[in-house]
Amino acid sequence: MSKIELHIERLIVEGIPLTSGTPRQLQAGVESELRRLLGAGGLSSDLTGGIALPSLPGPALQLHPTPSALELGRQIADSVYRAIGGDGSVGGGVV
């Protein structure tokens, strides 16, 4: 299995109130779910040679009514993965 290194400098979450401690839980959800998804499906072939992108819009999220920070992190990770994942094209997977 090849090594995948992903660095997300900033994640902007708008329209969702975050309380104290929530950012760490959100980060944990994003990290664990991206690790799982990338381990299972890899990266888009467009990214396997390495690339730096200043931004990458992901597909829209379909949020549950009151997601926990961990669940929200997983949903964000799923959206990020659909933009970079092994579907063959960067930015693919529109919902």
Describe this structure as you would to a colleague.
There is one protein chain. The protein is an all-alpha fold and 95 residues long. 38% of the residues lie in helices and 0% in strands. The protein has helices at 22-41, 69-84. Helix 1 packs parallel to helix 2 (69-84). The longest helix is centred in the first third of the chain and has 20 residues, at 22-41. The chain starts with 21 loop residues before the first helix and ends in an 11-residue tail after the last helix.
Strand content: under 5%
Mean of pLDDT: 79
Shape: elongated
The counted number of beta strands is 0
Which ranges are low-confidence, i.e. pLDDT below 50, for 5 or more consecutive residues? Answer: none
Terminal CA distance reads: 29 Å
Properties at a glance:
95 residues, mainly alpha, 38% helix, elongated
Nutshell version of this structure?
The chain contains 2 helices and no strands. It has helices at residues 22-41, 69-84.
